[in-house]
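Progress note, sequence design subtask.
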């Protein structure tokens, strides 16, 4: 399988038609289109350390959730971009389309929470569902921190129980008003922002800010599993660049 053939295979599973207009993902770097793909590195973010690891261990392709290039470049000066090209390492990214696609990262988190009656919202990127029974706010917060293996979670308590939950992995604070309008009593995202958290409490919705990395870390694992189904070796490289003290 060549690099373009690999991209076509994953694109069939996570179609570009789902990507939001403001997004930039897809095949982002392809120094050698004819290169046979044998080893693939799956990551959340294409950090310099991830590129060093790929180059040092003879990976042909890096597949990421977050795009390698999000905004237009006026020049190629980044050491990691230059290293990718010099080492003939292709890069493909599957961003908002993987938030939206059935079975993607938001569905994964919803399943970890055992949500029922799941619906889409937030431009299709989020999920709303209910727990079988309401649980206490403190107990739910501890459970959420545990399943995400998060170092810490910021939260505001607007009511003592959690039942109908809206989830937007990554940065989703802008969708709190929509979650409220859809009857959610609890909202979960990776990033919300200090003032949005305060506003959410005033508006009567429990809100958990669990960290961008921690709500999306499993995307690399999910994409790896899709690739393995094609019979290609794939490995996950996980690194959280954001340190907590």
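Output:
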């Amino acid at each position: 399988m060549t690099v373009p053939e690999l991209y076509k295979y994953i694109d069939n599973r996570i179609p570009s038609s789902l990507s939001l207009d403001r997004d930039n993902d897809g095949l982002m770097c392809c120094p050698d289109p004819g290169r046979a793909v044998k080893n693939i590195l799956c990551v959340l973010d294409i950090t310099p350390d991830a590129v060093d690891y790929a180059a040092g261990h003879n990976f042909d392709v890096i597949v990421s959730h977050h795009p390698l290039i999000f905004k237009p470049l006026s020049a190629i000066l980044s050491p990691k971009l230059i290293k990718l090209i010099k080492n003939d390492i292709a890069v493909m990214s599957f961003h908002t389309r993987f938030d939206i696609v059935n079975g993607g990262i938001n569905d994964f988190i919803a399943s970890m929470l055992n949500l029922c009656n799941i619906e889409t919202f937030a431009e299709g990127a989020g999920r709303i569902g209910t727990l079988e029974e309401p649980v206490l706010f403190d107990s739910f917060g501890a459970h959420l921190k545990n399943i995400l293996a998060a170092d810490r979670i910021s939260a505001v308590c607007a009511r003592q129980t959690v039942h109908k939950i809206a989830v937007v992995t990554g940065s989703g604070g802008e969708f709190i008003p929509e979650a409220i309008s859809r009857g959610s009593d609890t909202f979960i995202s990776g990033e919300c922002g200090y003032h949005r958290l305060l506003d959410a409490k005033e508006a009567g919705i429990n809100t958990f800010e669990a960290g961008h990395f921690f709500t999306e870390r499993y995307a690399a694992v999910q994409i790896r599993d899709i690739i393995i189904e094609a019979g290609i070796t794939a490995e996950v490289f996980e690194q959280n660049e954001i340190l907590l003290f």
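The radius of gyration is 19 Å. Work on this subtask will continue into the next period as scheduled.
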